[in-house]
Amino acid sequence: MQPNHFAKAALLTAVLVLTGLSAWEWHLRNKGLEISYDDGKELWAHVRAKAYADPATSTVFIGSSRIKYDLDISTWRKRTGRDAVQLAIEGSSPLPVLHDLANDDKFRGDLVVDVTEGLFFATRPGAADDPTQFKDYFYDQTPAQQFSCNIHRSLESGLVFLDRDNFSINAMLDKNRPADRPGVFNFPLFPLEFGRVTIGRQNLMTDEFLVDTSLQNMVTGNWLFFRSINKEPPASGARLDSIINAVKISVEKIRARGGSVLFVRTPSSGPFWKGEQAAFPREKYWERLLKGTNSPGVHFADYPETAGFICPEWSHLSPKDAITYTLRFADILENEQGWSFRRMTASK
Amino acid sequence: MLFNSYTFILFFVVVLILHNMRFPWKMKKVNLLLASYLFYAVWNPPFVILLWISTLVDFVVGKKLFHEENRTRRKVLLVISLAVNLGMLGFFKYGAFLMENFVLLMSAIGIEYQAAPPDIILPVGISFYTFQTLSYTLDMYRKQGQPESSLLDFSLFVTFFPQLVAGPIVRPGQLIPQFKTPHRATSEQFMHGLFLLTLGLFMKVVLADIMLSKSADTVFGTGRVLLPLDAWLGVLAFSGQIFFDFAGYSTCAIGIAACLGFTLPDNFKYPYAAAGFSDFWRRWHITLSTWLRDYLYIPLGGNRKSEARTYINLMITMLLGGLWHGASWTFVVWGALHGTYLAVERMFRPRKVPGNVEPDHAPEITLLQPATQTVTASFVPSFLYRRTVRRFLLVLLTFFLVNVTWVFFRAQDFPTAWRLLTSMFGYQQGGEAILPTLAMIKVSVVIGLMVLVHWLMRNTSVLAVARRTPSWAVAIVWSIMIMALLLSQESSSSFIYFQF
Questions:
Q1: ipTM, interface predicted TM-score of the complex
Q2: Which residue of A139, B152, B398, B427 is surrounded by the most CB atoms within 10 Å?
Q3: Tell me: the pLDDT tens digits for B62-104?
Q4: Are residues A21 and B194, on separate chains, in Cβ contact within 8 Å?
Q5: B490 touches chain A (CB under 8 A)
């Protein structure tokens, strides 16, 4: 062995790693891909810390994926003068986060709760898994973890390949997975173009997704798959009463501290909307929720200006429609729900 | 602070810079000590107090023990050290377990006793540093080695951050003398350290977390009866996960220490190439098995007394070794299985010639020795007598039996362990398929390669191989490991052994 054997190897390693990663980054950027953030518990906890901001300067949003697509955060900021603290979590019930905010004395702000009935009134325990894990992480994270997450976000903001959902080893292997044996459950794949995530936790469909019907069909196929495997009947009877009662208690806790809670039903369309109407009749779920919790609500179907959106994959708005929807939603809040916004000046 | 985190990288860079500046050696040691306390405090700052208590008690008691000649006073001093160290360990690690079993015992004899479950957080790594400081006190009690006169050096021995929370468990004689003279890594040693750090992180992040953990979690987490194939793959995934996780940590620790100019003992030597269980324990968690041998098995009498007593000593050592890993009866069963394997192995060894003094260690493996060949020659294919083939078959048999023990180590309770075992051996009808095909491929490839690499490397070390390999080839392997680490993009997950 030569005396500088490992030093030579280290130098060559540095060259190979830099070359390899640069080539990979260049390849991805050449494909037109942009930065997307890992939307895991770390980013959620980072955003969750902003929930304590002055209500005059921020509004907290919880729910599932729809509000993450349908609320355009920069439009909201410009229109209302408030920040949007996006705490919705895909494919999950917002109730654990609602109860957590209600039990957190430091939270005194305005809360908008997105209601996707199949998740909000879910009876399967799995719907609460991610929100519970995320909120636990928020309380349990150490300063060292926070520091690591801050560094990771800085790197993510400059490197396309740091996209855990699409370019991590597991994600890339998963995209080429072989067929499974009958009876084995494997979470279906979503195309990369369906969900790019911003630092503020907004989801965006790409332009390719909006024009490529095969990608859209892949997602609608996934919705049908989820519907086919969900054997749990919608909550009813005592179970439904219990959910609404628990929500009522949480809403009252937030109001007692000077905060406010408003429910929103964001748009869906096509077969998805029809299926939701059949499974979750409005008077039995939406109306009961508002009445049972004595809360205001904004249902997209109640307003001509929000009723006509077509979702490319039946369930979420395109980025362009999200801008329109956000403006109209803010108008409804201001004009019909009595919210007052400080309109941003042109300079802001 | 986790090795597999950005925070640690920054922390380590700062420590390296300070360690390589032109400060007096004493100041560098103070830097290392403060860095070690910071490293530990980021988990839970108040638990640093436990480190201070353990350090101060053993420093003072150890010195007095060495100089004290009065037998009664010596015993009192020893009891003080044991009470403080094992008391803290017992309270934090076994408090809830003891209470739970006390309630069950009371219930069994007809006394209704209810106690609120204690809300105790386990200080990370307490089992490791407790054993490390205990080794000093016990050495002083036996007047082996010299008492340490420098509180700074002793504190650094207890707290040295590379191995503080998950080993290797270092003996005073292995580390304290290194603090006596200035240590700074040579450029070659520094590169070795970086290579080992990369290798350790690759084992932990890429192999344990990405390739294997999900399959193990799925199989152990489901409440269903499984097909034997799925059950076995889940258990094999865990056998790989626990090795890559723990050996990965030890490799990182050795690498980090090397970057600072210090040497830590090996903790793993390709354990899945072990031919028999005494061989396994000479390759798996070496610093714990030697600790148990020197401070428990031999003081109990080792194999110096009767044959029956040797088996009892062996079993006591392995049962306590099991309990060291966690406050659960499943760990005790894991230890009992290893104790049984070692005892059975001992029974099959050839008889010693009378008058020969048997070395005081666990029995040598003797299964399939030539003496048995003539008996079995008529119905065993001749190629099986080749020494290498014979040994490889023994390795596979050992690996198979080790996997059975891992079921109890990983299962959260006995029903889970029983469900897994009955699934593995096809004792229950209606087993379900649960693992996706990709997961099955990952486990098969990684475990197959792991056993092969362990077999090929069983008599050497990774640095020895790297030194013999052209630098360009080392660079390619090193680059692949770094790129895989960067592309893994896993959230920093804790090392399994932190909980022990």
A1: 0.82
A2: B398
A3: 999 888 888 888 899 999 999 988 888 887 777 777 777 878 8
A4: no
A5: yes
